[in-house]
Amino acid sequence: MKLRISLAQMDIALGEPRRNLETLKTFIDAAVVAGSDVLVLPELWSTGYVLEQAEKFVTRTTEGIFADVSQLAQQHRLHIVGSNLSLLAENQYGNTLTWAAPDGTLLGSYNKMHLFRLMDEEKYLTAGDEPVMIATPWGQVGLSICYDLRFPELYRQYALAGAQLILVPAEWPHPRLNHWRTLLRARAIENQLFVIACNRVGQGGDVSFCGHSAIVDPWGDVLVEGGEEEGLFTADIDTTAVEEIRAKIPVFADRRPELYTK
């Protein structure tokens, strides 16, 4: 099936969710004008990395900034996907990705499984303990966040379970831009599916983020890629390409999983 996806490559204001929400609204307006079906936001788009202040910003996924996004999705008849700080349980906080549908409901949520020590995530957050794949009008979609990209096992699990797309909201910094671009294409090629990746730009504290949000097709071709400035980047995709490419090079039929654990 065909769909149009937009990536909102934002420069996030640290610890200012109301300001970032206003920025989001401008991206939503642009996505609507572009005729997009889905708008993907960066990781922790409403606050950035202010993990030491997490208690100040966390809410349950039915409240606060999550509810604001659901309302905007319903208002604009748009699917909106992005991650924020969430309250998992008393004194337990997550980096949680949600997918808000055009009727305002949540199609699903995913708590980041692999916490990034270089940003002290493990000091403040509770890691997720399961992959999440959701059903959308265009097929099955696997959810991941930033550092998860370095773990091919997760992406292969999604592919084997029938995912046609995998989403990657991120705050991926310099100097690892080449890693970002290479891994996005590798995950798409090896799993023969679409990888939809939205990274932030700008400066967050003493960290510079490298942007280059991208949509990569199952052949590894980059359909759209941003630079290092704020912007909306849009591409049309057709999920039938997944089965076509898997038929052309039958990687999954040729797997020998019984040998991989020896």
TrEMBL record:
Q: Which Gene3D superfamilies match?
A: Carbon-nitrogen hydrolase
One Pfam annotation, family name?
CN_hydrolase
The record's listing under InterPro entries reads: C-N_Hydrolase (IPR003010), C-N_Hydrolase_sf (IPR036526), UPF0012_CS (IPR001110)
Domain of life assignment: Bacteria
Q: Where is the CN hydrolase domain?
A: 3-239
Belongs to which family? Belongs to the carbon-nitrogen hydrolase superfamily. NIT1/NIT2 family.
Protein name in the entry: Omega-amidase YafV
- UniProt source species: Novipirellula caenicola
